[in-house]
Fold:
Amino acid sequence: MGLFTRAVMTAADHPKVESLVTRGRLARPVVQRFVAGEDLEDAIQAIKDLNSRGVGGILDLLGEGVENPEGAIQARDDYLASVLRIEETGIDTTVTIKPSQLGVSFDKAGCIDHLRAIAAATRRIKVGIEIDMEQSRFVSDTIEVYRTLQPEFGDLRLAVQAYMRRTPADLQAMAELRPRVRLIKGAYEEPEAIALQKRSEITAQYAHLIEWLFDHGTDPGIATHDEALIEHARATAERAGATSGDYEIQMLYGIRRDLQTRLAREGFRVRVYVPFGSAWYPYLMRRIGERPANLRFFLRALAGR
Structure:
């Protein structure tokens, strides 16, 4: 994790910074750039706009680290309500879920039951479902949740983080499943002992994992804005005999919209991660920490420019 990202994440934990960002109107332009809105209907409209450009959505209800059963039940019900609206509107989207929202930290069995209910709902309307990967303390439990449900829901997709040192071994341990994976770089602050810190090392591992997924996975989701890695995925797919319809390029809402549209026009399956909800602050700070350009945009918004 670079010094820039570490500094941003440290600031993100400061209550005064959070108060300034969440309560002040000046930050709204940057929030609106990276978050579809606080309400489900905001996200639905954002996905409709994406669909009009030939791009699919990945619906993400923001919020993490639920600490009680009531909160996990509420999150489950919110997801089920989202699935109902997807059915009613007919939008092209998948649904992604954070296990910590469903109580994985205090009731893994309950989390599995909640996720099973959501997966059954998405399967009924033929919508894909994905599991987000969160901080390192959740990785083992998240993989266990995936392994438990994958035999029942074969199209379940799991996010894995390229910067985690354990990820190659984790994937190899799942090779017999030919897992559906969303490959992301990783945006949480983690110590060097468990996560790669240098951008060059992370990129190299990401490229290696792309190759692994085309050899051993199913329908990989290549989640990156790095055009060199996208080109590497294209070349790897060609060597593996895969077409542009055999994998997805996934990006984040508000980032590289030009590239999203261009790739869709070139015939790639493109999906954009569309976050919504009131708990947007941690997500926003991770996006700022990923790229200095995002921080400049954020500071201009705070300055009212």
User: Anything to note?
Assistant: The chain is about 50% helix and 15% strand. The CA atoms of residues 53 and 149 lie 33 Å apart. Residues 1-33+282-305 form one domain.
